[in-house]
Each structure stands twice: as structure tokens, then as C-alpha cells.
User: Which sequence fits this backbone?
DNA sequence: CTCAATGCAAATCTTTTGCATGCTA
DNA sequence: TAGCATGCAAAAGATTTGCATTGAG
């Protein structure tokens, strides 16, 4: 069942209703799955995670809800190159910290890192400001990912 | 027909043979399509581009060749979130310059920019070095992309 | 001559869509 | 009660794979 992290109203309900969307059990389950996830989940991951407790929620609803969440800016959609999208709550939606990803091209392992994140953010802000002005482009998000071979795969091969 | 950019041997032939791959008309056509492209092409873009001159080359071959090129590190595979991968020669493979991308979430327009690229590269190098050491992760490439709304779409509303 | 490369068609797999029904507000 | 939300099945699309044939070296 959805956790409330306290006794107040669920943090996203107001925002959800404000956009004209309804609160349903399926949507609560999906948000909860994202909130309690320790990593980026695929649509199917989410489906599998909630299915035991919410067998009535189908994969279609997961996709449809994720689309809404991404459009609302509550969730970020990632592509790590393995043909399926991953979803993660945007920082600030909960206690999460800003991070970027290291992707192993061999085993597809994902490492989140926060090292140098302050330097990165500083540069990103500067770059975003400059690009916004030059191209009159309104930047809403960014991706930084490094690809390579992780330690385990280096040993193997 | 494939351009040779001069009279010497084609730059990628040696590297290709060295990996045990054969040089075929289809592969020449695909490499040429990438070399003469002014932007990232999808597999189908490449297929369409070469089809008039090489009707015998099928989409399957395009995919298979691109996979080899990506694995060899000659071509970079991008995902801009519209469900189809784009391919681009790695910088250094030809005269191209290092750049990153701005992606419009409305119309999917892609803007290449090189502004701030030196600052970005400096930070990336530093970050790569630090991450390599800390995670014993061998970094081979990176992605930086900004998402948002382009000027044209902002006008539209 | 050998074995990689290829075309074609079929198979996969993820994500999307149509439609009748259920449920929130 | 009005419409949004949903399940299910089918559709859509991109990419991959099986297999017999072709062609580079």
C-alpha cells in the first residue's frame, strides 16, 4: 500500500489534481513503486513490482501513467541503450540527490555517481544560461552519461 | 560511389580488415553515407540515402554494419527519445568537430552546439579521470544532451 | 575454395492505440 | 452523472534472427 511518509496529504496529489488528473489506486501504486525504488525502473519492472499487491493494474496503465508523470516533470525518462526506457523520480520529488550515470557497455550495469556533481552542475548552469540566450531555447532538463567498461567486466575480458 | 577524400587508401579499410571484417560495396556505401551526412542519421535514413545507388543493400545490412561500426568505436549511437536510434561518425573519424546536442521535446528538432565546448571538455576530462580511478571504470565515451523547447515551438505556444 | 556477408521473411520486443466498461470526483 | 481511467487485445514500429545464397579474399 502507498506510503505517506508521515501523516500529511500525499505530496503529489495536489499537483496531480491541479493538472486535472484523477487519483486512482493504480497511480498510487506506480508512484509508490518509484518512490521506494533504489534505482531506475523500466515500465515492466514497475509492473512486476506492484503486480502482487495490485493484480488489477495492467502494463498499459503503467505506461500511460509514466507518460503523464514525465510530462508533468515529476519523473525522468532515461535511455541506457538497451532498448527499454527507465524511469526515475526527479530529484526534489523526494529525498533523492542529484546524480549522473556510468553505463557499462558489456553488462549494462548502471552506477550512479555524485562525485564532481557540484562542478558539473555549476558548468551546466552556465552552459544552460548561455545556450538559452543564444538559441532562444528553453532548457528543462539534461542528461550526462559516461559509457565504458566496468571493473567486473574488465577482469572478465 | 564512395569518396576517397584524396587518392590514398580509404581511411577505414585497414582498421576494418584488421578486425577480420571484409570490405563490401554495401559497407562502403553505408560508411560513405555517414561521412557525407551533415547530421545524425537513423538506420532507415541511411537505407533511403543509399538505396537509389545501391538497391541491393537491404535495411538488415545497414543495421548489421552499424552494429559493427559502433562496436569498433567508429560510430556513435544516439538516442533522442523518439524511438529510433541515430548514428554519427565519431569525431576524429573525419573532419568533424566535437559537439553536443539540444533536443526539442515538442518537435524533436536537434541543434548541435559547440559553444562552451571547451569548458565542457575540460570538466569531462577531469570527471572521467576521477571516476575511472574511483570506480575502476574504463570510460570510452560520454553523452551530454539538453532537453527543452526550441524557439519555434515557443512561438507556437 | 571457405567462410563471412547478405537478402528476405519471420520473429521479437517494447510501446501505443481502439474500444467497451469501470470508477473518481 | 459525466468523463477520465483502465484492461484487453490488436497494432505499430524498430531491431534482430534463421536460413539459404552470394561473394570477398
Assistant:
Amino acid at each position: 500500500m502507498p506510503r505517506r511518509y508521515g501523516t500529511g496529504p500525499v505530496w503529489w496529489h495536489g499537483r496531480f489534481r491541479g493538472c486535472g488528473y484523477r487519483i486512482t489506486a493504480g497511480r498510487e501504486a506506480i508512484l509508490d513503486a518509484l518512490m521506494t525504488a533504489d534505482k531506475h525502473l523500466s515500465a515492466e519492472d514497475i509492473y512486476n513490482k506492484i503486480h502482487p499487491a495490485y493484480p488489477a493494474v495492467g502494463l498499459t496503465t503503467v505506461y500511460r501513467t509514466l507518460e503523464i508523470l514525465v510530462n508533468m516533470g515529476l519523473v525522468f525518462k532515461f535511455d541506457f541503450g538497451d532498448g527499454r526506457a527507465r524511469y526515475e523520480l526527479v530529484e526534489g520529488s523526494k529525498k533523492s540527490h542529484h546524480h549522473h550515470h556510468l553505463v557499462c557497455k558489456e553488462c549494462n550495469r548502471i552506477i550512479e555517481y555524485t562525485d564532481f556533481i557540484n562542478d558539473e552542475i555549476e558548468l551546466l548552469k552556465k552552459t544552460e544560461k548561455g545556450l538559452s540566450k543564444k538559441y532562444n531555447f528553453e532548457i528543462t532538463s539534461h542528461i550526462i552519461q559516461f559509457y565504458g567498461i566496468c571493473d567486473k567486466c574488465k577482469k572478465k575480458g
Observations:
- Residues 125 and 131 of chain B are 10 Å apart (CA to CA).
